[in-house]
Amino acid sequence: MRDEKPSLSATLANNLARQITEGVLRTGDKLPSIREYAEANGCSKNTVISAFDMLTANGLIEPRRGAGFYVASVAKPQQHDEDAPTLDRAMDSVWLMREQLQSKPDFLNLGEGFPPVAWLEETRLDHFHQRVVRTGVASLFRYGSRFGYLPLRQHLQQKLAGYEIEAAPQQIVLTHGANQAMDMVVRYFVRAGDTVLVDDPGYYALFGKLKLSGANIVGVPRGVDGPDIAALEERLKAHRPRLFFTQSVGHNPTATDISAAKAHRILQLAEAHDLIVVENDALADLKPRSATRISALDQLRRTIYIGSFSKSVSAALRVGFLACDANLASDLADVKMLTHVSSSEYCERTLDAIVSDGHFLRHTNRLQERLKRATATGVEALLRLDATIFKVSDQSLYLWARLPGRDDSIAFAKEMLDKHVILAPGTIFSAHANNVSPWFRFNVAYLGDPKFEKALSRAR
Q1: Strand pairing of 439-443 and 424-425?
Q2: Dihedral-angle region of residue 391 (phi above 0 means left; psi in -120 to 50 means alpha; beta otherwise)
Q3: Same domain for 321 and 285?
Q4: Rounded to whole angstroms, how far apart are CA atoms 251 and 396?
Q5: Global pTM?
Q6: Structural domain boundaries enclosing 53
Q7: pLDDT per residue over 238-281, tens digit each?
Q8: Residue 142 confidence (pLDDT) above 50
Q9: CA–CA–CA angle 240, 211, 203 (5° rounding)
């Protein structure tokens, strides 16, 4: 027996219902009149009336006497975009990463992890394409070296020397961003059940990688001048971990820098407890070269230094690197080869062309000046709101602050999403994400936007 086709009125009703549920027609929108709809679809008015009756019965539209039919307030658009957030979804590290990978022109993204595009676009990536193609077209069709493009590693040798870190090219491995560098370290050192120490609060994406590996994540509280040394020593004695992931300069999310005294003490503890310190310096180009770095004090004996250009050139290039002892670098290059074969030599050649150009130094200097101004503006904006700032920085992409009367950052972040403001709640940055946190990470580049204060006023 053949299935009966739906009636024309049912087909019209289904089409309208789909437009409503997909958000094409939104709450409060007025539908075309019955006559207009009939003419547009080449059917009778009675057919349209039957379709509207079905939609009314299902609560999708409502008649208003003398005004026509409107999309009912109970009909909420359903987002089918695979990256679209929902308010009832747990705000975990994956949620924040998804938010940062989307472009939402009508949202104010105070939780953004990167500088504004306008700050970076002056590098003009398009200018370097022809140079890259002319200097090595054959290599663009093959896998590159497991260590990465040698001329770029030689430039990185000079860059690290500016931070007083001595690293030969064979100690440097190019990666698909800083995140791949961390992933390689985790794959090499960590087995299920191993304890790994991390900054708390700290870099949320790292926590996800460690969870995937089955590691036991133990947080070391972060103070205004670096990790809590007493807590670090206690955790080293209790857990005997092999790795401690930390960020010395422009710490994400607290905007703190480590003191020289704490950096020295961490290295003393690392020596005593056979610990390797993994130093993530992804924001290096946004901070002064003179800032204290653990790797500069240690010279890569017990440290692995991780760097990136996502914050200063382009996240789309996905070029990062790690520097460490030469034997360990070779092993980690093998891990890279086994898991990813190689990094992108095209991207590496492009970055090499950029950093070897004299314009790049001027670009980073301007970037830091912009950041100083934005940081000052951001501090003023937060103080106007009676916010408590964890550490007032002169120059940092982020500020770590809490707002008065907002003790649950997750709940308030969900509330602000309704007002088209994206926040980065502090709970996401905790090694123990079940903890309630009153803190937020704010991107200073957007704190001066009056939309935030207006949204807060509406929330109050």
Answers
A1: antiparallel
A2: beta
A3: yes
A4: 9
A5: 0.78
A6: 8-71
A7: 999 999 999 999 999 999 999 999 999 999 999 999 999 999 99
A8: yes
A9: 85
